[in-house]
Amino acid sequence: MNHFLEEKAKKTRLEVFKFKTSSGVGHLASSLSCVDVVTSLYYDENVNFDPHKDYLIFSKAHGSPAVYPILADLDFFEVSELEKYCKPGGILKLHSDASIPGCHFVGGSLGNGIGYAAGIALAQKDKKVFVILGDAELYEGSVWETLIFIAHHKLNNIVLVVDRNKYGILGATEEMLKLESIKDKFISFGFDALEIDGHNFDDLRKSLTYTSEKPVAIIAKTIKGKGVSYMEDKYEYHTIIPKSENDIKKGIQELL
Q: Which residue has the higher pLDDT, 60 or 108?
């Protein structure tokens, strides 16, 4: 199973890199870091997630293009749409929205998606709601307000996944404003909190199938720009898309 998931993740990263560098827009490094999380959700048969019934909300909306190759592979839309990302006539936007088959939410301002997801979880308790948050998104006060709401209503049908790649747009989170211990903070707000390797499919499987009477928060330790050596752990690539022929060629070779 893990080999299958690794191959799916590898293919997804390659496709994201190709359509991002082709369009030249968006947040490539932030999409690459959470690929293994979404791969586990959609492809691991042990994870209780039905993309036709349940919800995946990208509160870090700038990372949402990570799911586009997966949705194409699962026949939500034609694979050819990947080549039209952010281009006239294509359906795939800079950030996912409800006009795209398999997507539910349009975001941009950080801290909004988790509130939207909490409303869904309250209104539709028979469905699972997974939320992917950026770690620098935790600087938003609305995130913590929503945690109070989720814990108060005992919404254990919602699972929060923090993409803990340690970097925001301006640099390392622990240098900008210290976040640690994130796990302890979630616990103090009434959550069960798990810290995992966000690129390890055994860890992902155990955490995404973890059940509790409390809402669950998963702090997934990831690598920003995962898979492309010159992008990894470089905060500058939060907004920079590789443009030179050599950089694009090197990135594709490393992701093959």
A: 60
Buried-exposed string 237-247: b where 16+ CB fall within 10 A, e elsewhere = bbeebbeeeeb
Cβ(220)–Cβ(164) under 8 Å?
yes
Contact call for residues 196 and 218 (beta carbons, < 8 A): yes
For the chain, give the percent of residues with pLDDT over 90: 97
- pLDDT of the residue at 23: 94
Half-sphere exposure of 231 (CA within 13 A, CB side): 29
pTM for this prediction: 0.96
3-state secondary structure of 172: strand
Q: With the CA atoms of 76, 82, 85 and 89 taken in that order, what torsion angle do they form, in degrees rounded to the nearest 10?
A: -70
> Per residue in 190-213, pLDDT tens?
999 999 999 999 999 999 999 999
The C-alpha atoms of residue 84 and residue 63 are separated, in whole angstroms, by 18
The tokens for 228 are 């492309």
> 104 by DSSP, 3-state: which?
coil
Listed by start position, the domains of the chain span: 2-255
Rg (CA), the chain: 17
Phi, psi of 240 (to 5 degrees): -85, 130
Return the pLDDT at 109: 87
Contact 232, 224 (CB under 8 A): yes
Chosen CATH of 2-255 out of 2.170.130.30, 3.10.300.10, 1.10.3720.10, 3.40.50.970? 3.40.50.970
